[in-house]
Amino acid sequence: DLGLELPALRDRGVRLFDTGRTQCFFLDLHNGHLSMKERVDREEICAAVAKCSLNFEILVKNPM
């Protein structure tokens, strides 16, 4: 939780970046919801890895 109200998400130009090879996440700036863009196939993304994680970064233009 960034502690930002909805208008601040838009005003600060909040952007979401997936760090993997596919874009899995979507940040809706109208309601603040972080969602999956589509169903994720664990076998496709993490194949033979026992511990699987999907990473992303959130960029905020103006300092908090």
Automatic annotation (TrEMBL):
Source species, domain of life: Eukaryota
Keywords: Glycoprotein
TM ranges: none
Statement: the UniProt record of this protein carries the keyword Glycoprotein: yes
The species this protein was found in: Eudyptula minor novaehollandiae (Australian little penguin)
Domain Cadherin N-terminal: 1-62
Pfam families: Cadherin_2 (PF08266)
Protein name in the entry: Protocadherin gamma-A7
Record flagged with keyword Glycoprotein: yes
InterPro entries: Cadherin_N
